[in-house]
Amino acid sequence: MNDRQTVFVVDDDQAARESLRWLLESVGYHVDCFTSALEFLESYDGSVPGCLVLDVRMPGMSGLELQNHLLERGWCLPAIIVTGHGDVPMAVRAMKAGAVDFLQKPYNDQTLLDRIQQALDLCSQRRQSHSELALIRANYEHLTQREREVSALVVAGKANKVIAIELGLSPKTIEVHRANVMYKMQAHSLSELVQMWMRLHVETRLPSQVA
Amino acid sequence: MQYFAHPPTWALLIAILALMGGLVLYVMRLNLSLRYSKRVLEVEIGERRRAEEKLAENENRLRQIIASEPECVKLQTLDGILLEMNPAGLCLVEAGQPNEIIGTSVYNIIAPEFRDGYRALSTRVFAGESGVMEFQIISLKGRRRWMETHAVPLRDGRNKVIALLGITRDITAHKHAEEEIRLHYRELAHASRVNTMGEMASSLAHELNQPLAAIANYSHGCLRRIRSGAGTVDDLTRAIEQVCNQADRAADIIRSLRRFVNKEDSPHQPQDLQGIVREAMLIAGPEANMHQVDIRLKLMPDMPKVLGHAIQVEQVILNLIRNAVEAMSNMPPMLRRLELRTFLEDDMAVVEVRDSGLGLPRETLARIFDPFFTTKSTGMGMGLPICRSIVEAHGGTLSAYPNEEGCGLTVRFTLHPAMEEARHE
Question: What is the largest CA-CA distance in chain B?
Fold first, then answer.
């Protein structure tokens, strides 16, 4: 419903929060501020696209822990970690937890704005690919058992005749199944079908990569 | 024969004889009584002589005692004229002969700044009280010495105060030693504060970063709005106000840091405990924040002022907060709670820091105030001993005990509230 991208700022320091809002609004971003990770988790339902700007250390739940919570819920809002006292191990942990960036205060405002834009782009990419994947999955669900078998062999690069022999069916029947697969999967070419197949089998196994 | 027979002659003879007999008797009595008187007088004279000898002996003994007394013993009148002074006293004021000082005024040797105080003491002694006073003298050779006098009234037989009896000793060495201890102690406390600052550098840098980052954000936001023509004057004004606020915030942090590492002691005077806690929080807050500790302040409203050195009290509070924060570093962040309370108990102001860490075993708890005892891998073990000496120098106590409920430790110290009149100043 709300497709407007939002920058979620989570920082326990009021001045840091409000000044960031002032800066981000000056370039036209929609900004939503939270005083703690918990407050953000309570109000966010995963529907609004955007990105997170987090302070690593906050009383209660830290920025890194918040990222883990987001992962558990399957939301991968790109997060930019901002810190006043970062060190290498912390940066590594942040990146492992899925942060897209790690900025140390004091930062250059243009750098921050650029990173936020990249994060927002990443978010829309991820959302797009997520909806494509959802479509592929839904289409795949519509295939019959036999069509799935046929599509697997088609993707494996086998000719209709070979498939017919393997499945003990006539090449004509295989041709019909194959046409059905192409139609149901909305694939316009064999290579497109292969791509879909790959995404279905690779990305489904890595749900953390989608938002 | 006829001669003897003449009767008038006989009568005259008998009369003369009788008269002579009476005379002899009288003289004999007189003699007896005189002899008795003589004996009585002799006894009396003997007794008196003995008494006089004893008196002289006593006086001599007293004189010897006073003369050999190592402390100065002196008698003086109400207006300060010295009546007597023993050799130790003469030595103390560096007088070669008694007549250099006897008969002159004590105010000639008392250092000017103490004269009024000494005059008040004299007046009290002549009113029948006794008193003690520390003051400085300037000896006849011009040297300043610290003295302590115990002054009592000297009374005559009718109980009238006739002089001030003063026993005075030289406490210069003692004063110097005291001063030296105070200096060492001040150096140690200062070194410990500098050390604390060093240990806290990273969290303090972060704390300064906050206002600086906010200032940068506000001003860049303003610039962008001005360049794009989007900002209204009201909006921009509000943002610039925030810039000023944040600059003040940074300045406050720097000011309190500079104050904290300053070597000079703040004067010993009535202090606002709330203010000291706030100052300590300004420095300790960032570190607590970095360790994700939730600090709760429960400060007693209308707490009377306490007597002490502000920076040293702040140092103790800061130290207790840091210990508590460190004690909780192994706890999950959600359970890291620190409570700082101030209240009055038994006429003393109490500052209490309670953590929600794992606490300490009894045998460790008994030793935490020992110098060089530490439970930390990086600690020197001097934090709490220094805190304890600071608190004790303020006449209070520093103690630690396990929390009544749950785990964790409570450390508290007491301070004297400032007197009533001081509070109205």
Answer: 185
